[in-house]
Amino acid sequence: GQAQIGVTGLAVMGRNLARNIARHGYVTAVHNRTDAKTKALVEEFGDEGTFVPGYTTQEFVDSLSSPRTIIIMVKAGAPTDAVIDELAPLLSEGDILVDGGNAHFLDTRRREAALREKGIHFAGVGVSGGEEGALLGPSIMPGGSEHAYEKLGPILADIAVSVDGTPCSTHVGPDGAGHFVKMVHNGIEYADMQLIAEAYDLLRHGLGRTPKQLAEVFTTWNSGDLESFLIEITARVLDKDDPTQEGVPLVDVILDEAEQKGTGRWTVQTALDLGTPVSGIAEAVFARALSGHAEQRKAAQPVLPGPAGGAEGSGGFVAEADADQFVDDVRAALYASKVVAYAQGFDMIRAGSQEYGWGVDPGAMATIWRGGCIIRAKFLDRIKDAYAKNPELPSLLLDPYFADAVAKGQEAWRRVVVHSVTAGIPAPGFASALAYYDGLRRERSSAALVQGLRDLFGAHTYKRVDRDGSFHVEWSGDGSQSQG
Ligand code: NDP
Q1: What's the complex ipTM?
Q2: Which of 198, 220, 386, 463 is in Cβ range 3.0-4.6 Å of 399 for a Cys bridge?
Q3: Is 0.90 topped by the overall pTM?
Q4: Ligand 1 pocket, residue 73 CB under 6 Å
Q5: pLDDT tens-digit readout, 140-193
Q6: Ligand 1 nearest-atom number relative to CA 131
Q7: 59 is catalytic
Q8: Is the CB of 33 under 6 A from ligand 1?
Q9: Distance in angstroms (rounded) separating the CA atoms of residues 219 and 237
Q10: Does 139 contact ligand 1 (Cβ within 6 A)?
C-alpha cells in the first residue's frame, strides 16, 4: 500500500480529522463501516488532498504502507472494541493503532495491554475541539508507547493547532495517560462553564441586567485575566435573540435542563477512586443533574420558601449605586473560583500520573490546552509558567502569581457568596471553591472531631498532635486512653 496513515470512522470527527491530515500532504486511507460516508468524503473533499478509499476492512488495511498507522474515530465503548477486533487480525507486528475517540482511560489500558501481546502498538489519543477543531487544528493529547509516538507525534503536531509556534500536541505518557488527561480536560470544562453560568445568574437576576447588557460585560471581561474561548462565546450566546421571535433573548427560550455525555461524570468517579477533591467539577456535574430533575423542581417551587432569587419583582439585593462594584466582585469571584477548579484538575492529573506511573508533565498539559480545545485561555500561559518555575508545585494556588491573584480577589469572592445566599440564587461552584480555599489554608481542620467520632462508634483509633502512634479511648469503659 501507499497510504501513510488511515482513518476509520468517518462521522463528523473522523471526516474532519482525515481532511485535516490530507490537507497537510499525507496520503490518507479512509474507511467507514457503511460505504456511503467514505464515498461522500472522497466526492466532496477529494480535491483537498490524496485520499485512498477502502470499501472493505481488508482493502483499507492493504492500502497502507508498513508499518501501518490507523486512527479509529468511532463511537466510544463497544463500537471501538468491535472495530479493534475487526482490524487486529489483519495487522502485523509493529503496526500502530490509534483510538482518537473519547474512550475511558481504563478501556484504553485494557486495549493497550491486549494488543501489546500481539506486537501492535495501541495509542489512546485525546482529541479536543469538536468538529471545527478536528478540521482546522485540535488540541491533541496522545498516549501510548514512546515507539508509537515517534511515528505518530510528528503527524499529530502537524495537524494540531499551534500557539506561539508551539503545537498543541505532546506525548502525555504511556497507555491510558492521553485519555485520562482528556477526561480531566472535559471535567475542567464542566467546572468552567458552571462558574460562568453562576456569574451570569447573579448578574442577571441579582442585578437585573439584560442578556444584551451582560454580553457587553462578558466582552469586557474577555480583554482581561478571564480572556478565554468560553467567555468569548458566552458573550455571543447572551447577545443572540431568538431567531423565531423579535426582541426575545435566545437564552430565555432555551430549556434550562443541561445535558451531559458523561466525561464529567467519569472525571468525578475517577477522582473519588483517587481520593482527589475535585469539588468544582463535582458541583458542575451535580448542578447539571439537578437542572435535569424537572419534576422535582416543579414540585418544589410553590412549596419551599426563601428569597425571591433576584431583582425581578423583588427589588434586587444590590443597590444601583453599588452595581459597578458588584459586577467587578462577580468577575473576581469567577476568576478565583476558576483558579481553584484548575488547581483541583491539575491535582487530579498528578494523582492519576502517580497511581499509574505515567510521568505526566502538568506544565506540558497547560501548554497544549492553550489552543484548539474548549478551555483554551490566556490563563493557561500562567499555569504553564507556574509549573516551569516549580515542577513540584504542591498546588496551583500556591504559585506566587495565582496566590496573589486569589488573595486580591478573596474579599470580593466572599461578598459574592454572601449575596448569593442572601438572594437565594444558587452559586454552588463559587461557594464550594471558596470552602476548598478556606479548607486548604486553615491551620486545624474539623477532621479532628470526625476522627473522635470514628473512634467512639467504631474503635477506628486516632493519631495525636503531640506523640506518635495510634490511640483509642475506652469510651464505654473507664474512659482511659490505650495505644494500639
Ligand atoms: P459518533 O460518536 O457519532 O460515531 C459515529 C461513527 O462510529 C460512524 O462512523 C459509525 O459508522 C461508527 N460506528 C458506530 N458503531 C460502529 C460499529 N459497531 N462498528 C464500526 N463502526 C461503528 O461520531 P463522532 O464523529 O461524533 O465522534 C467520533 C469519536 O470522537 C467518538 O468517540 C467521540 O466521543 C469522539 N469525539 C467527539 C467529539 C465531538 O465534538 N463530536 C469531540 C472529541 C471527540 P457508520 O457510519 O457505519 O454508522
Answers
A1: 0.98
A2: 386
A3: yes
A4: yes
A5: 999 999 999 999 999 999 999 999 999 999 999 999 999 999 999 999 999 999
A6: 40
A7: no
A8: yes
A9: 11
A10: no
For ligand 1, atom 40: residue with the closest CA? 130
Instruction: Return d(Cα 302, Cα 74) in angstroms, integer.
Output: 46
**CA-based radius of gyration for the chain:** 26
Which amino acid makes up residue 408? K
- Would you say the CB of residue 101 lies under 6 angstroms from ligand 1? yes
Helix axes 35-45, 12-23, angle to 10 degrees: 40
